Every structure is written in structure tokens, then in C-alpha cells.
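Progress note, sequence design subtask.
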């Protein structure tokens, strides 16, 4: 994913399907899987991501954890 993101000049890669929360920043590229609000796997915590984008600033990321989705 990181190689394709570099080739396409992307700063953020969002993916899912595994229902497992994942967040990594490496070489200026964020890879994010928000997890699942209804059927989480991995740590078992229902989650989603709040992603705030602003021009010329790094993204702000917040994992929202709750059983109230």
C-alpha cells in the first residue's frame, strides 16, 4: 500500500474489511483502518475514526471508541 501511495502522491490510505483498528504513520504516509463500530475484531473495541483535514497541515486523527454507535 505504501508503495502505491507514494506513486500516486497520497498522504493517507484508508482501508477496511478486517474490522481491526490500525493506524500507522511511516515516511509521511498514514495507513488507517477505522475498525468496526458494530463487529470489531482484534482488541474487540467498537471504533471509528474522526479524520480532520486542513490544507498544509498534517491530518488530525481521533479514534472514537464506544459501544453506542
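Output:
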Amino acid at each position: 500500500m505504501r508503495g502505491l501511495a507514494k506513486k500516486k502522491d497520497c498522504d493517507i490510505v484508508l482501508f477496511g474489511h478486517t474490522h481491526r483498528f490500525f493506524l500507522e504513520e511511516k515516511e509521511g504516509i498514514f495507513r488507517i483502518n477505522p475498525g468496526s463500530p458494530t463487529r470489531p475484531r482484534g482488541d474487540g473495541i467498537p471504533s471509528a475514526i474522526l479524520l480532520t483535514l486542513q490544507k498544509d497541515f498534517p491530518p488530525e486523527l481521533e479514534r472514537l471508541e464506544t459501544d453506542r454507535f
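The helical segments are 2-7. Work on this subtask will continue into the next period as scheduled.
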